[in-house]
């Protein structure tokens, strides 16, 4: 047990207990029968105290071995209700764990040896109990016995392990775990969370988002699939933190209760509008030319609408692309007369003279008013005196043959129609003049100034393309806002000082590979200067590369994440993203040596000689291997923090919370999301989550201020699977 020993050897019988029992017997003998040891009663008491001290010291050593062996099979239960998640103004709590070093690699190496199998694998009685359960599934008596064997209590010596899988030894190699904190200053370097399906990414997101909301930071969560528990957790934490009036839900799947958002309504440069709209079109091969044509025409109509004093929207862009003639006529009607008095009358005169015989061939199918406008503007005296770039762009668009024009924008129309169909059109193309629509219209600049909390549900399981388009547009919008904040601060344009203030903006992007595009690279590359702190959750490195279409760009994205949290993954290449950054360490190995030799001297009485012993050597091994990452239990992770320091962490199992006073519309969304998506993210229980019981008597409105203590989270009586590995 001494640290001076070459081998620590904790996976062995607890031989220290022999000394403990011996000391206990001697101490009792010294107290009750000191005469048997030729001791006086007073000397017997002193001697018993010495034996007790020695026994306590040896028991402490034995307890380390016993606890270490127990953790190899089942870790202690670690569960917290949401209200007990630690909070700090300087650090971010990740869970409990320890800093991994060469000593833990040595212990992990020893746990893999054949001699340690008896201490690492479940006992024979445990395996028999599980086989009995399988063989008695149908019998009435057998079912009762099997239920007793499955009883999750410390009184059951063969209770089943929690359904987290993996190797418990990866965390059991250190029994002195403690809270793991990451300094908030490190978050601006962004954090990448890798993990396969159902291993705890969403649970980690809940823990981080809970702290961000309580700390008062701007918190924005992008959830492509739609997790009801995550949405409810954000709402509950916003209410408890007194930020209920700052909480907003944007959900494409439930437009009736969702906020409205114009993805192209706010911009720093007008060209951003066309970039956000056409960014979803394919840019590979021959499609690149059509994408550039589509970008140009969207830019033309956006400039025209902006010149007319109108805010661009998906619906307006679709209408203008489909019928650009109407836009040209409106623009000329409202702007040309002021520049050239009498122009509208001259155009009307030209229009009256047009017929099918004198109609230019390239203008067949166009409105006669459009043909008259083109002919009027082609007059030499008009060309010399008129300079209007917006009008020139519109003219260049209508001069194309109408059939040809429809072909080159054909790839754009399906996307715009998806974004402007049904009730989604009301969300993405809001009517700013409709005072009867009580759904708020969110804007990232306003959200940042209000220090808002936003849940964005993109309903990707129903329509992936629309979810992707909206998500990418939001990212592009946030990049634009970040650029403005970087230059002028979040309070720019408001009265008073503080224009240079930069607030922490926490972006939590679940399955971010489904949402990212080229605009995501500048977001993580330069967004830190504006206070943006991205926490991105994805499954594999290949997902990023497949989405962005370039290994170099995928490496550029990953290279901008300074912090890495790696849960269980199934792709070795993804696991090596962590293990290849770690140094090699030396581990001690033991070699049993046995030798025998004959004696060739006939005059000697010794016929042979033999020797046996253990030889200890060292070998250089990787601190962690990809197999270790692949074998992680659910809810556990390795983390590279603060410049490459390796930590082993595990997240707490959530204790059931009872949420009260939740608005009926929010609870309705959550209930339908559970029924529709059935994500099964409660991996810690092994069963689907039960419905939340709400009290709908006098529910507050979703976007009205509520009392600070409107939501109360309490421990419930429900049982949680014991242990985590």
Percentage beta strand: 5-15%
CATH architecture field of the largest domain: 3-Layer(aba) Sandwich
Q: What is the strand tally?
A: 17
Radius of gyration (CA) equals 35 Å
Specify the helix fraction band.
Answer: 40-55%
CATH superfamily of the largest domain: P-loop containing nucleotide triphosphate hydrolases
Strand order of the largest sheet: 3-2-16-15-12-4-11-10-5-9-6
**Which class do the helix and strand fractions yield?**
alpha/beta
Task: State the CATH class of the largest domain.
Answer: Alpha Beta
Mean pLDDT over the residues: 84
Main β sheet profile? 11 strands, mixed
Count of the domains = 3
Low-confidence stretches: 686-725
Q: Say what the CATH topology of the largest domain is.
A: Rossmann fold
Task: Provide an overview of this structure.
The structure is a single chain. This protein has 28 helices and 17 strands. By secondary structure, the chain is α/β, with parallel strands linked by helices. α24 (541-548) packs across α25. The chain has an eleven-stranded mixed sheet with strand order 3-2-16-15-12-4-11-10-5-9-6, sandwiched between helices. The protein has three domains: 16-73; 90-122 and 161-259 and 439-585 and 626-725, Rossmann fold; 280-410, no CATH class. A hairpin with a 3-residue loop joins β15 and β16. The protein is 43% helix and 14% strand. It is elongated and about 135 Å long.
């Amino acid at each position: 047990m001494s640290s001076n020993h070459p081998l620590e050897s904790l996976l062995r019988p607890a031989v220290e207990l022999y000394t403990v029992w011996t000391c206990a017997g001697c101490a009792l003998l010294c107290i009750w029968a000191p005469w048997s040891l030729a001791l006086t009663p007073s000397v017997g008491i002193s001697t018993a105290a010495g034996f007790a001290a020695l026994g306590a010291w040896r028991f402490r050593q034995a307890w380390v071995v016993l606890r270490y062996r127990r953790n190899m099979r089942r870790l202690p239960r670690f569960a917290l209700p949401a209200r007990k998640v630690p909070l700090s103004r300087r650090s971010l709590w990740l869970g409990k764990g320890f800093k991994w070093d060469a000593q833990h690699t040595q212990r992990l190496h020893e746990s893999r040896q054949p001699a340690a199998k008896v201490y690492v694998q479940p006992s024979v009685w445990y395996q028999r109990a599980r086989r009995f359960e399988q063989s008695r599934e149908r019998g009435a008596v057998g079912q009762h016995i099997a239920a007793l064997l499955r009883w999750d209590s410390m009184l059951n010596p063969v209770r089943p392990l929690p359904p987290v899988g993996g190797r418990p030894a990866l965390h059991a190699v250190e029994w002195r775990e403690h809270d793991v904190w990451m300094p908030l200053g490190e978050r601006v370097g962004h954090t990448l969370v890798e993990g396969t399906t159902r291993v705890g990414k969403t649970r980690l997101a809940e823990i981080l988002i809970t702290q961000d909301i309580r700390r008062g930071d701007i918190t924005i969560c992008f959830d492509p699939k739609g997790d009801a528990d995550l949405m409810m957790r954000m709402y509950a934490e916003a209410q408890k933190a007194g930020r209920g009036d700052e909480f907003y839900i944007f959900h494409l799947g439930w437009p009736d209760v969702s906020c409205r958002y114009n993805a192209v309504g706010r911009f720093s440069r007008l060209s951003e509008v066309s970039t956000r709209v056409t960014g979803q079109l394919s840019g590979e091969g021959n499609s690149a030319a059509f994408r550039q044509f589509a970008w140009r025409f969207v830019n033309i109509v956006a400039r025209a609408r902006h010149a007319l004093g109108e805010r661009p929207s998906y619906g307006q862009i679709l209408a203008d692309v489909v019928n650009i003639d109407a836009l040209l006529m409106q623009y000329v009607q409202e702007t040309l007369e002021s520049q050239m008095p009498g122009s509208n009358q001259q155009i009307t005169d030209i229009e009256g003279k047009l017929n099918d015989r004198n109609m230019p061939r390239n203008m067949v199918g166009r409105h006669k008013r459009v043909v008259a406008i083109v002919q009027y503007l082609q007059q030499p005296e008009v060309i010399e005196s008129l300079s209007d770039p917006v009008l020139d762009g519109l003219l260049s668009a209508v001069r194309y043959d109408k059939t040809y024009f429809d072909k080159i924008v054909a790839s754009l129309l399906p996307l715009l129609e998806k974004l402007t169909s049904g009730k989604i059109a009301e969300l993405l193309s809001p009517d700013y003049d409709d005072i009867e629509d009580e759904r708020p219209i969110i804007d990232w600049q306003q959200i940042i100034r209000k220090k808002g909390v936003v849940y964005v549900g993109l309903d990707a399981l129903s329509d992936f393309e629309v979810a992707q388009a909206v998500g990418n547009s939001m990212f592009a919008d946030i990049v634009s806002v970040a650029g403005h904040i970087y230059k002028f601060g979040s309070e720019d344009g408001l009265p008073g000082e503080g224009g240079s203030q930069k607030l922490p903006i926490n972006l939590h992007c679940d399955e971010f590979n489904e949402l990212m595009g080229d605009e995501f690279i500048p977001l993580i590359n330069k967004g830190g200067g504006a206070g943006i702190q991205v926490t991105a959750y994805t499954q594999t490195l290949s997902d990023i590369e497949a989405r962005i279409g370039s290994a170099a760009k995928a490496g550029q994205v990953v290279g901008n994440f300074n912090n890495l949290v790696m849960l269980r993954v199934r792709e070795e290449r993804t696991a090596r993203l962590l293990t290849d950054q770690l140094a090699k360490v030396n581990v001690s190995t033991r070699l049993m040596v046995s030798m025998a030799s004959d004696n060739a001297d006939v005059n000697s009485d010794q016929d042979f000689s033999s020797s046996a012993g253990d030889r200890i050597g060292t070998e250089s091994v990787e601190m962690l291997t990809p197999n270790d990452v692949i074998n992680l239990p659910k809810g556990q992770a390795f983390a590279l923090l603060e410049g490459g320091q390796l930590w082993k962490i595990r997240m707490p199992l959530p204790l059931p919370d009872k949420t009260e006073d939740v608005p009926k519309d929010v609870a309705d969304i959550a209930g339908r999301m559970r029924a529709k998506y059935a994500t099964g993210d409660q991996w810690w229980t092994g069963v689907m989550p039960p419905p939340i019981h709400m009290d709908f008597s006098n529910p507050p409105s979703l976007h009205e201020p509520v009392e600070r203590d409107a939501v109360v989270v309490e421990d419930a009586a429900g049982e949680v699977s014991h242990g985590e590995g």
